[in-house]
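seq:
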Amino acid sequence: MYFFFFFFFFLFFFFRPIFLLFFFLHLLFVISFLLLLLFFFFFVVVVFFFRLPLLFCRVLLLLTSSFFFFFFFYFFFFFVFLFFFFSSSSFFFFLLLSFFLLLFFFFFFVVVVVFFFLLLSLFFVFFFFFFFFSRKVERNPFPFTLVVVLSRRTSIRKSSFHSDPSLPLLPSFQSLPSSVISPHETIFRSFFLLYYFIFFVRFSLF
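struct:
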């Protein structure tokens, strides 16, 4: 962190265009980190309580991995760029500069835009479910009714809870079977959270 601070300070006084380039890329990194941090807290709620499909979780892991590899190559070619820049080779300088620009466009249009539309779509899904079950939640005093309804499997028939008029409108935790979350799905979701936790702890050090 201090290395980047002094390096940017050095570029600001001696190489102003290069400083602007790296400052813009670093600012893009900070913005993307904040977006992913928002995704982390959002998916802790959505994945475990609203029961998103496993395919959707795998797509998110794939996008996060692409984000990780982007910054791996970014910092790798960052030092390669320094080596060729101080060796005063104009050809490699413009070559690496163009490569950084290509990486930027790839990151912005593929990763940031995709994550933004995923977040937007998940927001509308959450709003739809909340609006759809709002009346049922009002009729049941149990505070986690919405979570219980959204977390049960589709194989649980709705008629089984409403066959008896004396029963409450919505089920409680005791009425849910023990196989609501399968073992392999629990392992995958735990790995999903562990992956994001390590990811954010790693990049929060920069």
